Every structure is written in C-alpha cells, then in structure tokens.
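On clarity, I found the account of how folds are encoded harder to follow than it need be. For illustration, here is how one protein appears when written out as sequence plus structure tokens:

:::
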Amino acid sequence: MIQKKTKRLQVSSYPSRNHLKDELYALVQRDTAIFDFVQDIALDGLWYWDLSTFERIWISDKFWNTLGHFVGYESSSCLLSQTSLPITVLRQLFDNAISHFRTETSPYVEHIDFVHKLGHKVMIQCKCIGIFDENNVANRLLIALTDTTKLKQTELRLQRQLDRYQHIIEGANLGVWEWNLQTGETYFSERWAEIIGYSLLEIEPVSIQTWKNSVHPKDRVKTEKLLKEHIEQSTPIYECEVRMRHKKGHWVWVLTRGKVVSYKNDAPEWIIGSHQEITASKNELEKNRLFIEEAPTAIAMFDNNMRYLAVSTKWLEDYSLKNENIIGRSHFAIFPTISQKWKEIFKSALQGEILKSDEDSFLKKDGSLQWLSWELRPWHTHDNNIGGVIMHTADITRAKEAEIKLKISEEAFRGNFENAAIGMAILNIQGQWIEVNQSLCDIVGYTAKELRKLTFQDITHPDDLDKDLALLEELLAGKRSFYQMEKRYFQKSGKLAHIILSVSLVKDEEDNPLYFISQIVDITPRVKTRKKLSEALQKLENILEDITQVSVIGTDKYGQITTFNKGAENLLGYNRDEMILKRSYIDLHLPEEIQKREIQLSQEYQCSIKGFEIFTILPFRNEIDTREWTHRRSDGTTFPVLVTMTALKQDEEVTGYLAIATDIREIKKVENDLKSLLEVTQDQNSRLLNFAHIVSHNLRSHSGNFQMLLDLLTDEHPELVSNEYIGLLCEASGNLNETIHHLNDVVVMNSLEESNMEHINLFEAVQKTIKNIAGMHLESDVRVENNIDTSTQVLGIAAYVESICLNVITNGIKYRAKTRNSFITLNSYVENEFQVLEVRDNGLGIDLEKHRAKMFGMYKTFHDHEKSRGLGLFITKNQIVAMGGTIEVKSEVNVGTVFKIYFKK
C-alpha cells in the first residue's frame, strides 16, 4: 500500500498558473507526432514533467477521475491535499526516465499501482516519451496513462482457468497433444505417452509420425480421413476411435479428439486435442455387441450421438437394412424422416430415463408405416457414465394392420350395409330376416319391421323356391362357399320383382353356421328391357330377311361368316347353309383387289397388314370403312358393290364385324355416262375458250379501228362533235371498248396457270391501295384501318391482289352510310389451308335475301350510284377463283358488310 508522505508534488490545474500545461498545449499544436501520441495512447490521463526538478509536474484531470477524484477549477487544491501519491515509486520513475533518455530516444513503458479513492488498487501503464531541447538533452517527460486493471484481472482469471483445465485433464487421465499444421511442430503430454506404455523421454524426439506409426493400420485411413475433413472445416471437431500399439505389443483403444484453434495466413495453424484410453469400455461394448447380434429379437445399441454400435439380425430384417452397413452411422441419417417426437424420446433416454410403449407407429425408410412395441433404456460405462441407449422393439405391424382392417371392415360393412344401392340382409339359419337395409325394403315394398316377421320362403315365387333351398343346403354342407341365382320375390302389392340373389355363410370359430348374408339386386327393369330387346331383335331379324337386294354379312373377329341374309343369297348366289361357319368373308373378293389394299394400308400405317385385317383395321379404330369392292358370285361372275364395314361390340370389346354391301352396277353405268359427258363438256369449254380469245382479239381490233376513225373524223370536222348522232356513235364506241376490255379480263382470268403465281405481302398490297385512294377516302371522310400483320403472305398475282383490294375498299367508300361515321377495317387470319382477308364496313349493306343469287354476276348492281357498273364484284370473284381461292359475304341492310376473301397460303 502507498503511505502518505509529507512532501507533495507541485501540481497545478489552472492553465494560467501552470506554464507546463501551456507549454504542452503549444507542443501538441506544433508537433503532430505528439498530438497522435496524446490522442491514441493517453486513454486515462496525461502527465507532463519537468526533468530539471522532481517537484514540477502537470497532471491532467482525467487521471484524477481514473482514481475516483473529480477535480474542478476551484477545488483542485482541496482534493489534492486529500490524495496520496506513491512518492517513492514516482521518484523511481523520474530517475529511470532521466537515466533512459540520457542514452536513448525511444519511448518505454513502466507499470505503477495506485490506490483508488474507494480503496481498491488501480494498475496504470505509463508509456513515457522524452522531449529533447536543441542540445538533444531530454528536459521534459510526457507520460500517457492507461488503466490496465481489467486487463490484468482478465489475464489472472485466464491463468487460473488454464490451471483448472490442467487439473481437469490430469483428473480425467487425458493425454494432450498439439500439432502445428504449418511447421510440423508437435507436443505430446506425459500422459499421452503413458497410454501406450512409454514415458515421454522414451519416445522423444516426437513428431506427428510418432502418432501415425502407433495407430493400427486398419484405423489409419479412417482417422486420417476424419482429421482431413475437420482441417478442411467440413466438421466442427475431429473425433475418432482408434487402436494404438502398446509398448508390450498389444493394442489399446483410444478416443482421440481435436480442434483447430488458430489460423495463420488464412490457413489452419495449431490443432489441439486429447487422447483417452477406452479399452475397458470397448471390451465391454464388444461383449454387449456379441450378445445383441445373436439375440433372436430386434435389439440395437447406440452411443451418445445415436450412432449404431451393435444390432441384431432381427433388427436388420424388421427395418429392411440387411444389405446395409450401419455400424458407426447415425440412426437419424439412416431414417431421415424420423419424427421430432422420436428425437425427444431418444433425448430423454440419453438423459437416464427408461421409456417404453406397447403400441407406437414409425415411418420406415421406404415411406411405409410400421407399428412397434418398444423399450428404450440407457447403458452405462465402467465409470458409471451414460454411454448411450439400448433399444428393443417388436414388430406388431401385422397384428395392428389386422386390427385396423377389422375395424375398418366392420365400419365399412355397417356403412355399406345401410347405404348400399342394392338390397342387403342378414338371415338366421331358418331363413328369417334379422337385419335388412332400406334398399331391400324398397325392392319388396315391406318395412323393415314387417320383413323381420317373415322368412325369405314367404316372399319367394314357388317356381324358384326349390332351387333356392337346394343351393342353400349345399352352402350349409360346405360344398360351396356362396351361391348366386336369378329369382322372383312377391312384393307387398302382389307384383313380381325380378332379382339376382347372392348368398354367403358366416361361421363361428368352431365352424358352426351363424347366419347368412344376402345381397339382392333388383333387375326388374332389366328383365323388362330384355324382353323388349328380344322382341326388337326378332323384328330386326325379320327386316334383315325381308331385305332382298342388300347383302348383310356378319363375321367373327377372324373373318368367318356368322350371318348371311336373304339379300346376300340373292346377290351372291350362295345358300346360307354353305356359308355360315364354313367360309371366310375374304373369299367373296378378288385377290388382286385384296393385294392392292394390303400394300396401300401397309404403307399408310408403316406395318404389315394382310388378309382379313384390311377390312377391320378402320372399324377396330371406331372408324366406318365405306369403299367400292368387286364381289364374286358362286358362278364366278363379278359385279361392283359399295361395302360399309362396322365393328360389333359387347361391353366395349369387339366381338365381330358387319359388312353391308349394295349392288352399284347401275350407279357405275351412270358414272361412266357422266364421265363421257364431262369429257365432251371439257372439249367444248376448251373450244369456247379459244373462240373467246379469237373474238376478244378480233373485236378489240375492229372496235379500235372504229374508235380511231371517229377520232379522225371529229379532228378534221370539229363541228361534228356537237352532232347528236356523232355523239351517240362516240358513246357507243366507248362502251364497246369497255365491254371488250372486260371480256378480255375474264378470258385472261380463266386461262390463268398456277405457275404464274407468287408470294405477295398482303399488308403491303393493302397499304399501297389505301395510299392510292387516299384522296378518295379523305374526301368521303371514311376511316380505313389496316390491321394486317406486316409479315402476312398470300399466293397470287400481284395485279389481281391489288385489284381485289381496290374493289372491296372503294365499294366500302362508295356505298357508305352518310348518316354515321364510316369506317373500313381490314384484318387477316389463317383458316385451314387459306389466309383469309376480312374487310368489314358499316355502310349501307346489301339485302342478301333478295340479291344473294346474283351477288357476283356481271353488270349486277344493288344500289343507285352514278358510278355503279356491276363489274367490280364480278371481276373480284373471277380473280380470286382464278388464283384458287374463294369469297364469302355477310351483310345486313343499314348495318354493314363483311367480305371474307380466301387466298392460298
């Protein structure tokens, strides 16, 4: 402790009274190094000492604060008189500074203990730097003060903790090792060497190789792998059980643990760990393992981390693990879907609890549910610590599933019984109704209460009773497990109900009959329908027999004839007795037609199709096959027929085929006549076309000459222009030229060849037309919108496409409705193999009921307009047809018109 001295240091707190303080402030302002020193180091106070005299020193207020004193300008002298400073220690500091800076210029550090105002010790680090005069003599001492009390106390606690850890290691009998991964430097404790029977002196010099050489060869790969994983930061700690060779030659089991504790240059540096001998524990575990492996029940032994130590064969079987090596693996890794509930159970067992359950569920690795009875209890090491848990289980899945199925079956039976759409009943051995459902009551018309007073014999039709009782006796005698029959019940109203009855017998554990379970299906509507169907079939057969000129032949799935009507007999000359089940349908056809059809279908379906299959492949695919064939009569002659082949099905399964053939000799004759007439017509059309070419050419020449002569006449005699007859001649000549021009257009269109067609951008063609008539639609105040995609292409002749666009757009403008804002919109889209141009307007519209037939005729007009000639739609129709397309129109008077023009793509 510091004693009070009579001699005090001369200290001033006022700058005006203490020139040292003023001097220091000036020095700090002048010298940045001094400024940095004060800023960075003087955390808890500052001293500035005049080295020429011990008494002259300036001490900052922060130092007094560190010692618990709060010095103000007015009270500093008072507080200083109450504070004792260790004068002897400070004198030593003063003398050391003079001695140091006499030969050195570098700073140095000293430590001094002070007494806090509250009485405890405050440890101060003093960093001293010398202030030198112009002669390089230290005349001032600047000391930066730092309170290191907490740091020193922390260091002391750390040392005590290290001492405790050392005691723990020694008490736990652990061997300690350290290894510098970068330099190879190693340290092994004395206990480390003792575990394998040596003193540390005997195995020096030590290295990591000392350790590796001691490890059993079979364990070396495993431990090096785990160590590498930890160094690469794949695992939080390194832990492994290995065998190490003892000095006496036997192997001892060692649990080795370690952890990287420092890094240098971003790489692991020091790893520190321990060795613990576990030979006794391993021997004990081995005994338990052998016991568990041979156990006839499902037992598994786990360590504290729930890793498998031993398992019985039954455990592997029950959990489908026979082909897996699970020793050393985590139970949670093998069963990753294990529930949190089970994890909590294992946790409780590892804490010492004994747990068990007679019935519990467990989700297996394959996703199936397993039912277990189980018991879980901790096992202890030789030093009485919990080493893990032992689990015993019994698979009760089958018993539990049987129980669940029985419960479900009972509930299902009760639900099915009461809510079944068919009649259900339980009867005693005497045939009395015990339980009946509502469906049975509905079938027979009795209430449940009324039925319980009766037996099944009371309501069974007499003609069906003997058969029913005979089957019932066979059931009781064990000759059959159930029986089914069709029978009749008398309803309460006296009417008959047709039913299908199914009966089974329930016996007790001693095989004695308990009761009958009956299922009753009401087939009354089916019986009535069956009767009507039978009548209809009889009528159909009669109709088939009455058809004498249509062949109806039925076959089985393989082509054998099963039906041969009167019409087939008449057309083919065969008798049905020589055909049914004796001949194949294919015998009625010509071999060359069969072969041709085989080749055609084989190429179409890319597989071999032969024989009768050529008639059935389409009907089998739910398609009706109608085509012309040639049938051969019994006398060898042939005739053409039109055959329709369909599939006959029962419950969606093909059971046979039906071929209906019609004699088409007369049709073929008419067809040949039509073909001859068509050839004559085509020849006449060709001649007419040639004639039209000649006429249009010659007329154009004559009309041109006539027009030229009229022009010459009026040029030479201008006075004739006003002559009425000359005017009429000029007008007639102009009309004749226009008519010949139109006739020439039609001839050209009808002689168009497809090779002259090309791909045309429809958007650009429409846009060009709109531009050409811009003045017309602007003057008429008609809005024209081109909504066609810019990439749309059509196949045609550019002049025709532009002419079509011009005609339909100008028609929309000419025949607009002047009472509303007019518009024309053009759109295009694909429809089947055509590119459709749709032109829509809201103009006057056309009365299609009145004009549809002459819509596209030459010189046909539908509105009074000064420029109407009746040629636009006629030319448009011929142009689009000439290009392989067509045109449609929809129109409503005073609403508007839609033209749909179909171009080839």
